[in-house]
Amino acid sequence: MAFQWFSIGFAWASIIVFIAVAAYKFFRIASMPLNLRWEVYPVPHETGEKHKHGGSYMEEVDWVKKARPASKIAELREMGAEIFFLKRVRKHNPHRIWPYSMAMHWGLYLLLGWIVLLAAAIWIPVLAVVALVIGVASFLLGMTGSAGLILKRANKKDLNLYSTPLDYFNLGFLLAIFAAGFASLVVDPGFFGHLAYIRSLITFKPSPVPYAVTCTFFLLQAFIIYMPFSKLIHYIMKHFTFTGTLWDDAFNVRGSGKSRRIERQLSYPKNWDAPHFSADKTWKEDVQPASVEQEKNE
Amino acid sequence: MNKKTVCFRDVAKKEDKPLACLNAQNLIPLDALKETPSLQPPPDKWLETYDFSLDGFSNFDRPKPNTAQEREKFVQGFITGMKKLLDSQSNWTFFKALKLSMDYCMNCQTCSEACHVYLSSGKQEIYRPTFRSEVFRRIYRKLFTPSGKWLGSLAGADIDLNFQTVWRLLEMSYRCNICRRCATVCPVGIDNSLIAREIRKLFSQELGVAPAELLNKGTRKHLETGSSTGMTPAGFKSSIEFIEEIIEEKTGRKIKVPVDKKGADILLIHNAGEFISWPENPAAFSILFDAAGIDYTLSSDLVGYDAVKYGVWFDDIELARVALQHIEIAKKLAVKKIVVAECGHAHKAICVTADRVMPGERTLSDMPRESCLSLMHDIVKSGVIRLDPSRNDFHVTLHDPCNVTRMMGIVRPQREIIRHVCKRPLQEMIPHGVENYCCGGGGGFAVMDTLNFSEWRNNIPARMKIKQCIDVFQDILDPDIRKYVIAPCSNCKGALRDAINNYHLKDDLGIHYTGLADVIVNAMVDLPEPYLEWDPEF
């Protein structure tokens, strides 16, 4: 009974830790200083012809005075193509990791769907059948993908050189979850144990479940705790790397929120020590031409 | 010829022997050429004095440190700089983008084959976009992350930090053109070229170490004498007189080039290298703007007549200093906007990157900055000048400067201009537009010429562009058939000039280069003689 209570506690703790750490990382990055503009084209939110050839509003004369239509949907579509179809990996990866990477990622997406379906099946039992299909697909895809990526990393010289033991651990961890999940389906194909476990989490009423089921969920929960501390949380960071940096083409307008942020950042002390810098000056004081200082004094 | 396998631990090897030995047989083949530039080891005299331990090439004529103390001081300076680079206030300009690129690379190597340096070299490991980043990341993990400190080599924090590691990392940061092609293909949005730039920045901003052409003879000279070329305001005025003479000689027109005209609509800023190396380009702008009735001026103010902003490649503060000077000069002249002439990095620097180092009253909304390409496109399309495409009766391709296309999204105006003023269809390189390859001169390489660096530039990064130039004209390589590569960027022209000379493209294959304004002016109906010269005297 004590173990079952621990199991319930661990499950909820894993979700809380994940949300807390992921949110902390998200807000910490969001509150970092505004980066200098460093966009790279094509920027997907451009519209019409410009979207097709990778153009920007800067192709126009007097663009500051003109409307600059932007499509959030086009941006989401591009992000979706990356998240769900790994567009860039498919098109550019020379080591043909795309099928394995797709399988592993879809294994994870379906795993999430499987858990949601299991929870829903407590009230709508027929969904257990769908959950079985999704579960089998998730575990088979996940095992194939994780194992394939481990083998690719181990056997391709170009990948092997750059792979750390931690990279193999991450893939091995995923492989263990998918394998355990598959074993749990073999042990409990009618989902009675799975449903009992999910019900115990929701109702906080411990009940005995097969070992394979407990093992699957325990591994998954450990992974959920581990993920935000590792680079496996890169999917959240894409918001900052793509939308917040590579696609951020917003220019500085006087009086805007961004402009005020920049003013604040310009007052940061500049503590670099190269001989071509003046000591003990803020950024703004150091880079301002002498004429501006003179103008101010007058 | 087999390449030596390099691993990360090798970067710390305390020996003068280069980590990678380049061999002409490994480079991408250029079958159409009888001979390609030589690839020689550095002379023994240099080897005694300077450090060539990365790949046998260097642009740093800085003598090797003699004592352990000197070496240790260099390493400690690097660590201090790295701390500042990883501090959100010290490095507010790029902290976020750098931190994300340091922490979330999945090492999938999707970016490798986007890199022309890596491909041109025959896939030398040390030139892979992730190699230098991974060296830097391994040092970062070892010194600054809990996982690196606790897990060591298990987390990839297994590199020794000594003088050799730091020096090789410095050299590696100058083996990337910062063309950012790798960033466009990364599935996570990681920017390995930014890491190269930030490594350069660490060395410049903390230790004052940067290629002489970029810092001491670059931004420092620009701010102190007025131009990185060394041209003073008086020298600039003489250049303008010379340009007026060229215009009269070539067109029979007496045009007074406006300088320091208060209240003009536009402040036009050229790369001052144009006045010295290609004066026919600023002359073409003057002819074109005069004919189109554009109200513009040049500036003779210190710094105001040279658009370059080398800081964009290696030093944020130097970038901001020059950019702000340009805005101040525009304000003083009370112009409505700044237009950047044919200089790619100056486009990106003042229109994009430096946008967020401007105080409130100097923002883009207060002093717009634009590309000359859009303006020239409007002039050509407006019909205000009579143009005859048959005057440009040669084969033509377009080189896309990375800073103009991939970093600003200006792709179409230059193509429409060419379609309008050239008789023959534009032959596009593969790839082109935002997917183009760098000319090999990006990131400052076009102006870097110390020790044997230019030999490396011509052989490795410029090689891909040479291949593209040959491939695009593959059916018409007869030297008697004139073919132009239009490059609307001074640095690209500089790199192309060197590469075309070194690979004998003009003499052997009839391939030459030019700017865009020159081609437009060449199509002007009412000019008595062709403006473009196959063998210019300047």
The number of domains of chain B is: 3
Which range does the strand content of chain B fall in? 5-15%
Q: Give the count of helical stretches of chain A.
A: 14
Ends apart, CA distance between termini of chain A = 81 Å
Number of domains of chain A: 2
Structural class of chain A: mainly alpha
**Helix amount of chain A, in percent?**
55-70%
- Which chains make the largest contact? A-B, 93 and 102 residues
Helix content of chain B: 40-55%
Determine the mean pLDDT of chain B: 96
| DSSP E strands of chain A, number | 2
How would you describe the shape of chain A? Answer: elongated
Give me the side-by-side strand order of the main sheet of chain A. 1-2
Spans of chain A with pLDDT under 50 lasting ≥5 residues?
none
List the helices and strands and how they pair.
The complex is a heterodimer of chains A (298) and B (538).
Chain A: H1 2-30, H2 48-53, H3 72-85, H4 87-92, H5 98-121, H6 127-155, H7 157-160, H8 165-187, H9 192-203, H10 211-226, H11 234-246, H12 257-266, E1 269-270, E2 281-282, H13 283-287, H14 290-297
Antiparallel strand pairs in A: 1-2
Helix pairs in contact in A: 1-10, 5-6, 6-8, 8-10
Chain B: H1 44-49, H2 68-85, H3 95-103, H4 116-120, H5 129-144, H6 146-151, H7 163-173, H8 181-185, H9 192-207, H10 215-225, H11 233-251, E1 266-269, H12 273-277, H13 280-292, E2 296-297, H14 311-314, H15 316-332, E3 337-340, H16 344-351, E4 369-371, H17 372-382, E5 395-398, H18 412-421, E6 426-427, H19 453-459, H20 461-472, E7 483-486, H21 490-502, H22 505-509, E8 511-514, H23 516-522
Parallel strand pairs in B: 1-2, 1-3, 3-4, 5-6, 5-7, 7-8
